[in-house]
Amino acid sequence: MSNMTQDGRKLWNVGDTAGTPRTRALAAALRSALDDSGLTARQVGRLLDKSHSTISQWQTGKRVPTTDDVSAFLAVLGVTGKRRRQVLDLARNARDSNWLAGGVSEQLAGIIECERTAIEIVDWCPLVISGLLQTEAYARAIIGDNDALAPQEIDKRVALRLDRRNQLDQRDGQPVDHTVFIGEPALRQCIGGKDVLVEQLHRLVELNGKRGTTIQVVPTGGGWHPGLMGPFVIYGFKESPAIVAIENHKSSVFLYEDDDVVAYRRASASIRRNAISPEESSGFILDVIGQLEEK
């Protein structure tokens, strides 16, 4: 629950802040550090004079630790250097609702944590196929187009991108409800060359309607809709407010305030009105494949 000030601003209590984009990333960072340490939550709790449940709640994001708590936690685990600084930075601003994440590590931490816990994902992709639907060759064509990355780092990032999809498919119980709106330009942008694009488009047809994934194409020429302003992803959760992620070339913005989420929900509804049905979309993609193969 949250309360409001007289000027309409939110006051977040622990239950609210535990669902913000930054606290989700913090929880993921703490889990990763603990996993790498070889210690258990119970052992760390004894060393910090904290209960086992408190340590567990820090890792799940149900409770937000103070910066001092996080500093002590990392010290016990032996986390130093750049990784320690990054986690402490998350902790210092954990209660910020909206979040500008700079750099690949922060971007991925926020995005992966949202994907891990979401029950609904609405993905608008006007120019590039969603990372959760990409083939290895298509992902490699995008990630590998960076002279600053060593081949080993490219391999690592491609594997991580593919694993994000695998994690959705391997969930226990109900799969995530993943709706993907794809702009027609994304189907025709020849990323990686014709063969790579054709393989990618066949993959879209294969995935449409499977394991909770629904793909709808938005043809060009349909007039104005808010999606023309750029891509975004909406993550819906069972017990926490939704989060909007806007991913740019070198950073991501995570939005959490009600007004922002409502605005993007309305934008997705407008995009849906401009999209063709999933069945028509599969046919549309097959037509694009045919056109490519005739060239």
UniProtKB/TrEMBL annotation:
GO terms for molecular function: DNA binding. Transmembrane segments: none annotated. InterPro entries: Cro/C1-type_HTH, DUF5753, Lambda_DNA-bd_dom_sf. It holds the Pfam family DUF5753. Residues 30-84 form the HTH cro/C1-type domain. This is Helix-turn-helix domain-containing protein. It comes from Saccharopolyspora hirsuta.
